[in-house]
Amino acid sequence: MYNGDMRRQPVQSHRELIIWQRAIQLCVAVYEVTRSFPRDEIYGLTNQLRRASVSIPSNIAEGYGRLSREQYRHFLGIAQGSNLELQTQLVIAKELGYAAESAAGKVEAVSYEVGKMLTALLKKLQPMP
Predict the structure, then answer these.
(1) Which pTM value belongs to this model?
(2) Taking the domain 15-124, which CATH number applies?
(3) pLDDT tens digit string along 50-89?
(4) Which residue, 38, 69, 77, 79, could crosslink 59 as a Cys pair with Cβ 3.0–4.6 Å?
(5) Per-residue pLDDT, 8
(6) Can you give the chain as a three-state secondary structure string?
(7) Residue ranges of domains in the chain
(8) What is the structure's pLDDT at 10?
């Protein structure tokens, strides 16, 4: 976050993190796309996709609140795994014809963006050699 003279201001909350904000948008998009899934998938693929999507911003927030850089990296790694899980489940949903290509494409695009952001943040937080 920047003030008027372009100096970097410290982030006061996980809610200010762009990565967390995009992960929330991803979660909302997943909930929207799964609304049209068959009713008999409510405890199957619908639940799996929703749980994976909720895990991403939750782990970003939890890691941010931890006391060390290494703990933060650990939770970002979990978020990254959940994002890959979500991408895999979305492929399955498309193959089964549960998700329209346009709706699934929106979710995939945000998921790939969040994945790139997670990778960049993990790299930034790597211990110095």
Answers:
(1) 0.89
(2) 1.20.1440.60
(3) 999 999 999 999 999 998 999 999 999 999 999 999 999 9
(4) 79
(5) 59
(6) CECCCCCECCCCCHHHCHHHHHHHHHHHHHHHHHCCCCHHHCCCHHHHHHHHHHHHHHHHHHHHCCCCHHHHHHHHHHHHHHHHHHHHHHHHHHHCCCCCHHHHHHHHHHHHHHHHHHHHHHHHCCCCC
(7) 15-124
(8) 72
Q: What is the pLDDT of residue 64?
A: 94
Asked whether the beta carbons of 113 and 119 are under 8 A apart, the reply is no
8 A C-beta contact, residue 125 and residue 76:
yes
Q: What is the pLDDT of residue 5?
A: 43
Q: Are 30 and 53 in contact (CB under 8 A)?
A: yes
User: Which residues partner with 14 through β-bridges?
Assistant: none
